[in-house]
Write a structure and sequence with these properties.
Spore Coat Polysaccharide Biosynthesis Protein SpsA, Chain A; 8-stranded mixed β-sheet; 13% strand
């Protein structure tokens, strides 16, 4: 029986037919010089061009290459999650298919892992992208994410990162949460660092990202903040809301009683209605917190269950 490789390189691919021959040639050279056993898991994210055909034909003479197909385009995070699910290495490295990441940086990332870290993030300090549509939004997003979440990494958006699989595999990824992996891993107790990596200009194909993803990232940022802060103690999130509505209801009821005692007998239902509504809201948040606590304690038995059925082996 073949032994599992030490390193799994996961490459999400969507409509990159132009890049695939050059990408495979670059990975051939890297494989020939790499000193550890490795596999490359290419995940076709429902490409509409000939990407999957090119990948299938490439597996015939590359034993280290595996191909996984998603039946529909599901986004980069879903493709990375699918590749992670089938990756066999103790170390998982993600990289892009557009050849802007350089696999020659992978040994440096792994060497940093060997110093005792669980995640080594690439930092594209000399980024070769358009300033307005790519570099400026990324610069702003990196600083907002760092301040909001508290995990300081210069380049959250850089796909080239190396992880210990035991830290990464239990995480459930969805939406655009791949860029928040340092925060998610940090909440699991991972030791995180970063190193500068090379970044090449895109010469083939076209970028699939634009300014329209900014709002989605901001929404995911709020979700990640809540996950990092309250995933293990949801009552700390719901409890203050319950208490606030309880205080508001108590104040409304008390004010209504004082009005009645002072002789103000107008038939106003505002204060009683506010008291009742606040009590109902308080009970709602209280029971939501209790339910969330129960889910935390008995759930998470199969973090990969939601992804089953969407992944299909090709080779």
């Amino acid at each position: 029986m073949l032994m599992d490789p030490e390193v799994s390189i996961v490459v999400p691919i969507f409509d990159e037919e132009e890049c695939i021959p050059a990408l495979l040639e670059m990975l051939d050279r890297f494989h020939a010089s790499f000193e550890r056993t490795m596999e490359v898991v290419c995940v076709d994210d429902g490409s509409r061009d000939g990407s999957l055909v090119s990948l299938r034909s490439a597996t015939t003479h590359r034993a280290w290459l595996r191909v996984v197909k998603l039946r529909a385009n599901s986004g980069q995070t879903a493709a990375m999650a699918a590749g992670l699910e089938v990756a066999r290495g103790e170390i998982v490295v993600f990289m892009d298919a557009d050849m802007q990441n350089d696999p020659a940086d992978i040994p440096r990332l792994i060497a940093k892992l060997d110093e005792g870290y669980d995640l080594v993030s690439g930092w594209r300090r000399q980024r070769k992208d358009r300033a307005f549509t790519r570099k400026l939004p990324s610069w702003v997003a990196n600083r907002i994410i760092g301040l909001f979440i508290g995990v300081r990494v210069h380049d959250y958006g850089c796909t080239l990162k190396a992880y210990r699989a035991k830290i990464l595999k239990p995480l459930h990824l969805y939406s655009d949460m791949h860029r928040f992996l340092p925060a998610l891993c940090s909440s699991a107790g991972a030791r995180i660092t970063e190193i500068e990596v090379r970044h090449h200009p895109r010469r083939l194909g076209s970028s699939k990202y634009g300014l329209d993803r900014v709002l989605k990232v901001m929404g995911d940022l709020i979700v990640i903040k809540l996950i990092v802060a309250f995933a293990d103690r949801p009552m700390h999130y719901f409890g203050p809301f319950s208490a606030a509505f309880m205080l508001l209801g108590g104040a409304a009821a008390g004010l209504h009683v004082l009005n009645q005692a002072a002789g103000y007998h107008e038939q106003s239902i505002v204060l009683p209605a506010l008291a009742v509504l606040s009590l109902v809201c308080s009970l709602y948040f209280l029971f939501m917190g209790l339910l969330a606590d129960l889910i935390v304690r008995v759930g998470r038995r199969d973090p990969h269950a939601l992804r089953r059925g969407a992944v299909e082996f090709v080779a």
